[in-house]
Design brief:
Strand content: over 45%
Mean pLDDT: 94
Low-confidence stretches: none
Oligomer: single chain
Length: 280
């Protein structure tokens, strides 16, 4: 589809593949794409849903998901272009599906139009390449997330009940509006860097309630993070620069803790294997 508007009012199956370059494709019911779906631009509108069972390729400059639900059930690659969501749209990576993101891109609520959209991962989401993916819509992760390279920045409400791995040299950043719970049955592991740099205003905080087992670096730059009684929390190095880290269970630092000006609160204990450095 290279121009104009096409509205599908009933269920449909696209068997040979679908390409959306420019224009407006709307699904009022359900569309199933059994072949490849290449999306390089234009608008995919609802209120129906589009289920991609073949390969999904996001490329080009920008994409607007307007009130529709886009479900990836195959192998998806996001190579370029921002993804804008509006009017309660949902982008779902289904259980058993894979989504590989190499793009330097944003995923955000398009001018705050309509109901709050969401990103939902139930499959395997992998951040690759030396780029940054910024997620600015609520993120529900019940699957697996691997930050293999570059940076995954979460500036949003988070519900994490699955697994997150941050590989050596990669970064997971909780930024500005990051808030929510890393649930009791979830895990965060790896040898990379995790940064907390959220706002204190409006009661925003992150609660770590599951298994946090990082051999890399944890940096507390701003905001509030709570280590819940149900958590197990271990990190290679810990930098307390600003904000508040509140431990309700033991925190273990297997290397060096650098303490600049942040607040470290109890009632939990902090065990440092090497040394504590008072920063300037």
């Amino acid at each position: 589809m290279t121009s104009g508007q096409l509205t599908l009012n009933q269920d449909g199956i696209v068997r040979n593949g679908l390409t959306l370059q420019i224009g407006d494709l709307r699904a009022n019911d359900a569309i199933t794409v059994t072949g490849p779906f290449t999306w390089t631009g234009g608008t995919l509108g609802g209120p129906g849903r589009v289920v991609v069972e073949g390969n999904l390729d996001l490329n080009g400059e920008s994409h607007l998901l307007e009130g529709a639900m886009l479900v990836n059930r195959g192998a998806a690659t996001w190579r370029a272009g921002n993804l804008y969501l509006s009017d309660g749209a949902i982008f779902e990576n289904a259980a058993g599906a894979t989504l590989e993101v190499s793009a330097n891109a944003n995923l955000w609520h398009y001018y705050n139009i309509g109901a709050t959209p969401r990103l939902r991962n139930l499959g395997m989401l992998t951040k690759t390449a030396a780029s940054r993916l910024e997620v600015l819509v609520p993120f529900e992760n019940g699957g697996a997330v691997s930050v293999a390279a570059g940076e995954l920045l979460l500036d949003t409400a988070l519900i994490h009940t699955g697994a997150m791995t941050v590989e050596n040299g990669a970064t997971l950043r909780f930024q500005n509006n990051a808030t929510g719970v890393i649930a009791a049955d979830s895990v965060v592991t790896g040898g990379g860097t995790v940064i907390v740099n959220n706002y204190n205003a409006g009661g925003r905080l992150l609660a770590f309630a599951g298994r946090y087992d990082l051999t890399g670096a944890t940096q507390m730059l701003n905001g509030t993070a709570i280590v819940s009684p149900t958590a197990s929390f271990s990190t290679g190095s810990l930098w307390l620069n600003s904000g508040r880290l509140e431990a309700h269970t033991a925190i273990t630092v297997t290397d060096v803790m650098t303490w600049t000006s942040a607040t470290l609160a109890g009632p939990g204990s902090t065990y440092v294997a090497q040394r504590v450095v008072r920063g300037l």
